[in-house]
Amino acid sequence: xxxxxxxxxxxxxxxxxxxxxxxxxxxxxxxxxxxxxxxxxxxxxxxxxxxxxxxxxxxxxxxxxxxxxxxxxxxxxxxxxxxxxxxxxxxxxxxxxxxxxxxxxxxxxxxxxxxxxxxxxxxxxxxxxxxxxxxxxxxxxxxxxxxxxxxxxxxxxxxxxxxxxxxxxxxxxxxxxxxxxxxxxxxxxxxxxxxxxxxxxxxxxxxxxxxxxxxxxxxxxxxxxxxxxxxxxxxxxxxxxxxxxxxxxxxxxxxxxxxxxxxxxxxxxxxxxxxxxxxxxxxxxxxxxxxxxxxxxxxxxxxxxxxxxxxxxxxxxxxxxxxxxxxxxxxxxxxxxxxxxxxxxxxxxxxxxxxxxxxxxxxxxxxxxxxxxxxxxxxxxxxxxxxxxxxxxxxxxxxxxxxxxxxxxxxxxxxxxxxxxxxxxxxxxxxxxxxxxxxxxxxxxxxxxxxx
Length: 452
Known about the structure:
Elements (H helix, E strand, L loop, with lengths): L1 H13 L1 H20 L1 H16 L3 H28 L1 H6 L6 H16 L1 H16 L4 H23 L9 H24 L16 H32 L4 H37 L3 H35 L5 H14 L3 H16 L4 H12 L1 H8 L8 H27 L2 H16 L2 H14 L4
């Protein structure tokens, strides 16, 4: 989130055209990152379940095969986007030639650095799978600092460097990602993760690649389609000009405050669930879910309040044009309604991923996110909402996704044999134990996992 916000913050000083160009190009980077979720989710689930079963060699094989797979996919996707960048950008039918040419150039620069740009999330997933999210956070933070320093230098041409505008932002991103990759390789190669020293090598074993696809493909398809729907929505907005595109591009990064953070909780819950699934500790899975959903939901409420109360102040950081600021305030006020439900949906996806059931969150996400297209086409009619109809379609679908996915997991959990047995034993204890003693016993049992 901070990477993208840094780009938008500096490019906003150049003008809304530069922001719009990078916003359009970023959709194709988003598609690439979505495709690479096959490797990241496959690594997270495979490594966490293997470690839960106390099988380190198997966890290492998941890691090595996931990295190899992502390198192959990155090379293919990078080549594709470089060769077809003009055709991809032309989909938006942008009348401003400057915006169009800048977007094409940005896409091609990221494509050249695709092996660097797209492989780091998989290394993050490998270490997350061990239960250590602090280490990848620190490594990615190093890249963020590099990005913050290099961005203005290349965008504005400080010192001996030429003024590159949006191209400078793309180059800065690739350089920062190369720094992150170097630190990841050094960390894993020296055995600084919970997996110990891994001998990194190119290896694709059918058994592991198949399982990585099983774990990661539904999530990747969900994200790919999510990004594709976002591209379609941007195409619907395009006739209103570059400014609404710029406003939505910045707004999406601001909204990442909630959905990226909820994604972090989802990852943590997925790893926690995967390890306890491997150890057959269903009592901890159930408790972990409701604890995490409470934290994530509270985050969504806080973000809603901030969007409603400080929308103008937030957009003033990115734009100087009054029209863009006013449009941005409307964007955040509409999206504020959905933040709680979005956090619930994303977090619930984590517990499903942890038990290896990646289809339910993907099915709900794909179906209801796809609903945004017909909703947007209907709501953007001049006599209804106009351009803000796109944002209402996003909000309404997010509310539905949160409600439906939570309901799915809740009823699945209620019908699970381990949950039913646990509740039955609790009822029997309730009948014979005084309230105070019962609470003490249940508190102790919850912590220890003792069901006797």
